[in-house]
Design a protein that fits this description.
Blueprint: H1 9-15, H2 23-37, E1 115-116, E2 131-132, E3 136-141, H3 147-160, E4 165-169, H4 174-183, H5 188-193, E5 197-201, H6 204-209, H7 211-225, E6 229-233, H8 235-240, H9 245-262, E7 265-271, H10 285-288, E8 291-298, E9 307-315, E10 324-330, E11 333-336
Parallel strand pairs: 3-7, 3-8, 4-5, 4-6, 6-7
Antiparallel strand pairs: 1-2, 8-9, 9-10, 10-11
Length: about 350
């Protein structure tokens, strides 16, 4: 049995610094995950399930989480890097590189919604004007596609501009998250010292057992901390804690509502379904979120080496590219080659 989550879990996380030693926590997390999670529940075909909980004929999930903020100017994209002619590591692929001024997204939306950039080179140019603030985003993919890096890069972009952020990890220890970020050149240790970043590691079993308390406290704590960006890595581990399908859906639905109430732009990472890269493991989060980014392996027969590609499945209230674009995970994070086309 894991220890009960303490009431001051968030305050303790904010007060800690990158110098705290957590080697013992790494060992406990590994043992707890192996011993208590057990086998993953079987949910074959769950992504196609349409039966509503409680027999209601109304849709289970709200279709619109947008919170329009009037009177805020759109970000200036004139200085965005439009380069992309040189693509290291992709010389052997059959790419069609279009002219630099060519665009593949729809016409501009007439909207005053304030926008933010994700912070990933190339990907932001695939989104016209950026993602609406206070959106709920999911980065979805199989193991090794860079979901955690996506989240770290998303937070670092905001922190580099003076924002405040929170990172929840259900998979790694606090120290390991900080080390992973700093190795990529993201100075999370400095942000922690400046008290602009909180990194909170929670065992998924503990979080599931205390989710009601966390959900009720989260909006107030986020507001007091002043965070504008939040990452949860990963929501799939939280979903795994519920054997009952209806309870799983209701708990995740209520948790995402609390994130919207907190007023932050939130990014969830999620494992993709084994049957389709375009569906999450339990078929829930893609319907709850405002934006879905699909990260996947591409293994065409005529390619010698497996490549990775990213696709924007949806962004509410924003025009975006419909194409699948190649990307790489480098020592500095994720780079999307927006001007390259995969065949």
């Amino acid at each position: 049995m894991t220890r009960k989550l303490e009431d001051d879990w968030f305050e303790r996380a904010i007060g800690e610094t990158a110098s705290d030693s957590e080697e013992e926590g790494d060992a406990e997390r590994s043992d707890s995950s192996t011993a208590e999670m057990g086998a993953e529940p079987g949910d074959a075909g769950e992504a196609d399930e349409t039966t509503d909980v409680g027999g209601s004929s109304e849709p289970l999930f709200d279709d619109d989480f947008g919170s329009a903020l009037e009177g805020v100017e759109l970000p200036d994209l004139d200085d965005a890097d439009s380069s992309g002619d040189a693509i290291a590591g992709f010389d052997d692929l059959d790419f069609d590189l279009g002219p630099g001024d060519e665009t593949d997204f729809d016409a501009e939306l007439d909207t005053n919604l304030p926008r933010i950039d994700i912070g990933i080179d190339g990907l932001d140019r695939m989104i016209h004007g950026g993602v609406p603030e206070r959106s709920l985003i999911v980065a979805m993919g199989s193991a090794g596609t860079g979901k955690t890096t996506f989240g770290l890069q998303f937070l670092n972009h905001g922190l580099a501009q003076g924002e405040r952020a929170v990172y929840f990890t259900l998979e790694e220890s606090r120290n390991r998250v900080i080390n992973s970020a700093t190795e990529k050149g993201f100075p999370f240790d400095e942000y922690l010292e400046e008290e602009r970043l909180a990194v909170v590691d929670i065992d998924p079993i503990e979080m599931a057992n205390s989710l009601t308390s966390i959900r009720n406290e989260l909006p107030r704590l986020i507001e007091e901390f002043g965070a504008s960006r939040l990452v949860l890595d990963s929501v799939s581990l939280l979903e795994m804690m519920y054997d009952d399908r209806a309870k799983r859906r209701n708990e995740i639905y209520d948790f995402t509502r609390s994130l919207k109430k907190a007023g932050v732009t939130s990014l969830l990472t999620s494992e993709a379904s084994e049957s389709s890269p375009y569906a999450s493991r339990y078929g829930i989060v893609e319907y709850l979120t405002d934006a879905v980014f699909v990260l996947q392996y591409v293994r065409p027969d005529d390619f010698r080496e497996t490549r990775m590609a990213i696709e924007i499945q949806k962004i509410r209230d924003a025009n975006h590219s419909r194409d699948k674009k190649p990307y790489e995970i480098t020592e500095e994070g994720i780079s999307v080659y927006q001007q390259a086309n995969l065949f």
